[in-house]
Amino acid sequence: MRLRLVTSVFLIALAAFPAARGSAHPHIFIDSGVTLVFDESGQLGAVRVVWAYDELYSLLTVEELGLDPDFDGVLTDAERETLSGFDMNWIEGFAGDAYLLVGGEKVPLSVPLEWSAAYEEGRIVSTHLRALEERVTVGADPVILQIYDPTYYTAYQISLPTRLENAPQGCVSQLFVPDFEAAGDQLRAALREFAGSDDAFLEDDFPPVGEFFAEEVRVTCAG
Question: Which of 73, 123, 183, 221 has the fewest C-beta atoms lying within 10 Å of its C-beta?
Answer without folding.
Answer: 73
